[in-house]
Amino acid sequence: MKPISLKIVLVMMALVAITLSQLDIAAAASAEQIDRDAKKALETLYAKSPSAKTMGEKAIAVLVFPGIVKGGFIVGGQYGEGALIQNGKTVGFYNTIAASYGLQAGLQKFGYALFFMTEDALKWIDKSDGWEIGVGPSIVVIDAGAAASMSSTTLQSDIYAFFFDQKGLMAGLGLQGTKITKLDKRLPSD
Fold first, then answer.
1. Which of 78, 150, 152, 184 is the least buried, fewest Cβ under 10 Å from its Cβ?
2. How far apart, in whole angstroms, are the C-alpha atoms of residue 122 and residue 77?
């Protein structure tokens, strides 16, 4: 094997090992830990983005995925767990999972929040047996520039998505092809 090829193989193996170890950590999260992390992430998002805070006040519910791990080399995947928060209380737990292929390499961690603006959009996640984003209610991904020009009169979509806390070395964030599924986790008080 040529030295350059061996380096590439070693980097690939390291990325896969790191990704798998992070997925195990994410999968093992308790309901209490997910609840705590989701509420903390939403509080931090509100502090950094007044538009997100305003949207949260108008939303029927917010689904927060505080720590999604995404990694890959040619073939990639991402996984994370989150909480559905309604009127300040966690009412359900969900996971988000996606697979991708193409020119990609790296590992990153990020979070996102989905702001449900209509009852029909909120009902969709429980009606569908695993909701594939891109099928069902319309979703608008909000970036910093769009967030600055938002007002209560411009909020016309069913769901708005805010990404936050992006860290790592992998380009691009998106929701297309992501599947969200309800988890059988409950808080002790439920």
1. 184
2. 26
Residue range of the domain that includes 64 = 3-182
109 contacts 169 by C-beta, under 8 angstroms: no
Q: What would the pLDDT profile of 111-146 be if each residue is shown by its tens digit?
A: 999 999 999 988 888 776 676 665 556 677 776 544
For 135, the token pair is 């099928």
> Which is nearest to 98 in space by CA: 116, 121, 75, 114?
75
What token pair was written down for 99?
A: 């697979």
> What is the Cα gyration radius of the chain?
17
The total number of structural domains that make up the chain: 1
Q: Are the beta carbons of 105 and 73 closer than 8 angstroms?
A: yes
- 188 vs 143, which has greater pLDDT? 188
Residue with tokens 């909701």: 131
Q: What is the pTM of this model?
A: 0.75
